[in-house]
Amino acid sequence: MGACTSTKQKRYEIVRTLMPYKVHIMAIIWPKNQHNLFDFESSSYCVKEIEVDFSAQLATVDKELVALTKSEWARNSIEIANITLNEQQAFINSISQQQDHKLWAVLKSEANQFQSIDVRCFINIKHLDLKIGDIVKLGRVRMQLLEYAFMPTCDEATQYQDEQEEDIQTISDVASCRICFSSKASETNPLISPCKCEGSVKYIHLECLQKWIGIQLKIKQGEHFIQYLCKRLDCEICKFTFRNTYTFQDKSYSVLKLPKPKSSYITFKITNDDKSKEAMIYVVEIGEKTELKIGRIPDCDIKLRDISVSRSHAMMKLIPTSKHTAENPDYIIRVQDCKSKFGTLVLAQDEDLLVIPEDGKSPILFQTGRVLLQCVQKKKINQKPAYKHPDNVVLIQIETKPQLDQQEQMQDSFVTHDELTAGDIIINNSQNPQKPQANMDVKEDSICDER
């Protein structure tokens, strides 16, 4: 069990549960506020190092890094991350729900990026393997991996054919679609409740919603890519923003139905911090390529027209897996940075990324806002408290900390799907729709631009 300590400091009593080990934290703070980006080419940054042996919230106060308990607060403080210590492991987690202030794993190709820092203690990962749902940040642009398919070069599969379905004719006086007024429903074309509307306009066919959304899209096609541009898509009645995917009993229903290429392809959702820019679905045909260049210049395979994106910003490589054959190609999608100005970041969602490693293992460099963090678990030489507040920081003891407005936190969230309840979906109208249960369980991470 951890030891409890009580010390008097700043005219109030601090109670901390100390662990038999400590966590060394290095923070690199860039003082310039520029879209919550960190300029990796700048020399005007400050470095702060602290060690903690208790669970705490990390915060910056001016240019100082402090570790706060739940009962402590400092004026002008900006909370950046949670550090959780238990008997077995230590973890780092984000505090804010805003995407920019979550923890992003930094990919950099050069270890000597910061000349004033001992490079032996400043190590970072050079690449990460992506899975469906992962978000990559390049400057102000975010790319979320939505879908991919690898096919043999000669494969001419009928990717454009629509699935044939057998509608189930049901009782006419039950729920019906608010667009086509039909009460037919099937497993592939159910009646769903995608928004907050009630009564006779509660339900809509999945295919009717797909067709309506398809009309709103603007299409731009290149030699090896297709862009689908869309603004925020809201219900015209209740103004609720439609999600990209709805799920029910482990089955997903996508409201975005796009024609798929006949050859290998990767699909991304691209959004921007600039609210004036439209959201985009970017489908890039791979062909026989095993590398995709991402940047601002014309010869990039994925062109991102934003000044915060470097000319040649990042690279995606297709690494054959052990299951790969010519007849059944299978690849790992690996992303790496190409010496970009603002770095290539991957949203840290996996628990493995958030575990603080022991000394001697390669730690991960995180970015949250304009702060870089790197944490390493170390042994304690003695049992004295490892942390002491800086003398120039005035702290206040409080019962509850000031909270950010929840609505403000959710403005920049990327809600990809909602979990439908039994009352939100009708697959067979022979069963009467149940009354809606509690509010939809919105899971984090849409074709919609929720900025």
UniProtKB/TrEMBL annotation:
Residues 292-346 form the FHA domain. One of its GO terms (molecular function) is zinc ion binding. InterPro entries: FHA_dom (IPR000253), SMAD_FHA_dom_sf (IPR008984), Znf_RING-CH (IPR011016), Znf_RING/FYVE/PHD (IPR013083). Residues 169-245 form the RING-CH-type domain. CDD domains: FHA, RING_CH-C4HC3_MARCH. SUPFAM superfamilies: RING/U-box, SMAD/FHA domain. Residues 428-437 have a biased composition (Polar residues). The keyword Zinc-finger applies. Keywords: Metal-binding, Zinc, Zinc-finger. Residues 428-451 are annotated as: Disordered. Residues 441-451 have a biased composition (Basic and acidic residues). The keyword Zinc-finger applies. This is FHA domain-containing protein. It comes from Paramecium tetraurelia.
